[in-house]
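Exercise 7. Predict the structure of Non-homologous end joining protein Ku from Kribbella pratensis.
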Amino acid sequence: MARAIWSGYINFGLVSVPVGMYSATKEHEIDFHQFQKGTSDRIRYKRVNERTGREVPYDKIVKGHDVGGGEYVIVEPEELDDIAPGKSRSLEIDTFVDLDEIDPMHFQKSYYLGPSDAENASSYALLRDALAKTNRAGIAKFVMRGKEYLATIRADEKVLVLETMFFADEIRDPEELGDLPRKAGAGKQLSMAVDLIEAMSGEWKPASYQDTYTERVKELVKTKHQGKEVVYSEEEPQATNPTDLVAALRASVEEARKARGAKKKTATKKTTAKKATAKKTAAKKTAAKKTSRSKKAA
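Solution. The predicted structure, encoded as tokens:
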């Protein structure tokens, strides 16, 4: 069974729901160690006192904040714990908002919230179902691992999901990118771009997308371990010349429509094959029943 990385209570109004928090996602990672090039010597990091050159144990390290002029304010871990809000391990819901109003830019990481005990499972289910029915999300703050988080709590079928969020002042202003292009004119290019988007549109199917880069890394490691060499030759994309944009859009629309037509034909063939198989199965069952009845009558 999964182990909770945080436990506490969801509080809304006078209701408290005990929950545990669990990781909802995992990333594809290939572990690599560092070596000095041309040798088998591992590179390791040590916490070293820059004045004495001696290694310092982790429990002897404290945090210091640079206040300028080479001066630091040293802060002990206990002092950070003392000022942390939510020491009661509380997910205090401040308000409920329409889930569709939240810009995805604010979402950071997803966690599952599970009921801490069977005795309070009914209150957990009540909150989950009420959120699903109203399409609302609870906005709350909590402290985990020495940091305060803003979070939304929403329903996702059988489970409550907590999304940690960026605070408003943590999201950078796009104006920092410099001069951005003006609004595109309502001409032929825009019309064709819309046509291309429509031609390439489809249903969101998460399982259709795989991490091909990680698979290539695994293949690279495997092949090199066998003493072979792997060569991948892919051309780097180049920006489309503005004078060729209409032609590129037109060709892209035609290609996308052909691809969609091919997909529809394949889907139709599969559906027809399934129906034919179902009919054959039904016919076999009917024939088997008739045979059984004939034997019984005989």
